[in-house]
């Protein structure tokens, strides 16, 4: 079980309002919290099931976060100029809090 | 939560959420979730937990400023858990160690099990509390969760204030190691994991681990005690080689132990203990043991054991030193044995002038050489060519060789013998090898000038009597001496070779001269012209009345020589030449090769009627030879192997009342007979005295020359400095005594080479 999930390419993120985001495990691991969640010696439910339920993050914000991870993954080692990552002002505070929670 | 509330407010206005009232309820709720999660982790059921949930709890507590309560709550929880676990799992097994020490490993295993479990749990707890570790812990300067957990383990389990776990742990570990030292099998894995655990546990704020404070110090102490007892017992029970093997095993064993289940850091400490207790404290005992002590090892050439001894002794500070002292002590002892072995018999025999003296000289040198060779081997293969050992061995040789006053003569005789006889049929390499070894002995001599004198004497005999086997070997030897002592030392020896070469040329032209001569000499004459300063010839030739034919021949040569070299004075030395005679006996004719002196004596009998004899006094008068030479000559023709003359009465020694007649009944298979004068033997007492006087004389000259040299360059110098300078100049040749130099200085003052500086008695001035 452990082997298959670690090898599993994707991971499912579920928001507080029930939306599921299936994204690359690699991208999700850019979050320190998610990384701990999936790789801790504890074998917590998240790592065995491959599904992470964020009870405090709404889909709008989680989507934003996912986009950010992909944005970061793409430009991580880029040498050219990095484009601006847009966040709508009404989501700024919540995104900020989610980012702190996720250690991203 | 915060975000949900925030969104209800008017756009663009951001307000901090106000939830002060419900912090208490929030803490109670979230903390109970967290606490049960930690308990679940301790129960090894972490897979039932949602990380997100637990993490969120920790996160929320921290951002709501409950970090301190969270931290201490976790700490208390873990501490309680450890306490109860120790009580339930470890304390019950402690009793086992009391009843049976070998079962103590059960305790180790129990501690180990708890430790492993604790570390695993700690890793998970650390993971879920990562937010606290990153945000709350650094600002309040507390140890991180993981470290905090380790400290807890240290303080509640290992150093439990309630239970004597610590003392049991120490006792069991030490017990296990002692058991293994005594040859029992132990569970190394258990010991290893415990020491690893102790290493992992650190003191507060420190890098020093609990291993050092709680274990190593005790371990070092018990080891010291163990090895103190063990070494005492082993020394009593085993002979040194066996003991040293055991020590080496112990050293390896301890090293192995440290690298396998203790830590490398302990290794130097424990090694030092073994070295101190087993080697340093028993140095003397090991070396001086009756049975297979150092002496026996040296005598029996036990290279392997000697090497081990060297290796072990080198580990402790004064080991090599002690070993050197003992080794050189042994060398001196065996050197003295060689000396005394040779001495009493040699002085006895030398008086009689028997060749036994030579044999003894040869034996002495050979024994010294053998000893040296043995120690060369020992040095190379057992003492790792250690420079300080080399020096110690050499100085030991030097001291005992110079204890034998005849050493220079013996060495020269040895070389003489080798060059005359032993090198026959030997390859160049062998010859070179022997000469090299002799040169190393020569290096030890302090009276090199005495050696030079003997060597010159022996070399001149070899050259004049044509006894040298190989010119090359002779030159090789001289070259070696030159390397050792410089040009000055060998210049005269080389001059002797030069003279021999020139004489061959002279004789060729002399033969040509004779072909045209008006009055060719009645006998064939072969002359070797010697430069008197090079050769050890007496300044006044030994008196000898040559027969008329001989005289005539010498006159012819003198005439020839003065025409070629104007202003040179020729002196004839009958003592150094040889003559071929043809003698008719009843049985047959023989050709006799005898010394010139013997020829002079034998020719006298040409004028004596058959059967008649000549008295000793008559011969003495006719020949004019000094008593010493005449007696030796007569001895060689009348008492030697070939009896050309018959002596009345028969005996081995010549006395003034003896009479001699021609032995016409002489028979011998060979037609050509060589009659040797008794030569190149150990000197008689008078000769010895003479040689010493000559050497003393030469030394005085050298000392004076050195003084003048020094003073000439310095112009004025004080007494002590002058003595030091002179000694350093002369040391290559002999060891001058300061008193002797002082005498020479006074002699030079008398002869007005030097003066005492006016007003300062210790200063000397050079007078040009």
Automatic annotation (TrEMBL), chain A:
SUPFAM superfamilies: POZ domain. Residues 10-72 form the SKP1 component POZ domain. Its main location: nucleus. One of its GO terms (cellular component) is nucleus. The keyword Manganese does not apply. This is Elongin-C. It comes from the Eukaryota. It is found in: Nucleus. InterPro entries: ELC1, SKP1-like, SKP1/BTB/POZ_sf, Skp1_comp_POZ.
Automatic annotation (TrEMBL), chain B:
Residues 406-638 form the Cullin family profile domain. GO terms for molecular function: ubiquitin protein ligase binding. GO terms for cellular component: cullin-RING ubiquitin ligase complex. Pfam families: Cullin, Cullin_AB, Cullin_Nedd8. The keyword Transmembrane helix does not apply. One of its GO terms (biological process) is ubiquitin-dependent protein catabolic process. SUPFAM superfamilies: Cullin homology domain, Cullin repeat-like, Winged helix' DNA-binding domain. InterPro entries: Cullin, Cullin-like_AB, Cullin_CS, Cullin_homology, Cullin_homology_sf, Cullin_N, Cullin_neddylation_domain, Cullin_repeat-like_dom_sf. SMART domains: CULLIN, Cullin_Nedd8. Keywords: Isopeptide bond, Ubl conjugation, Ubl conjugation pathway. Pathway: Protein modification; protein ubiquitination. Belongs to the cullin family. This is Cullin-3. The lineage of its organism: Eukaryota, Fungi, Fungi incertae sedis, Mucoromycota, Mortierellomycotina.
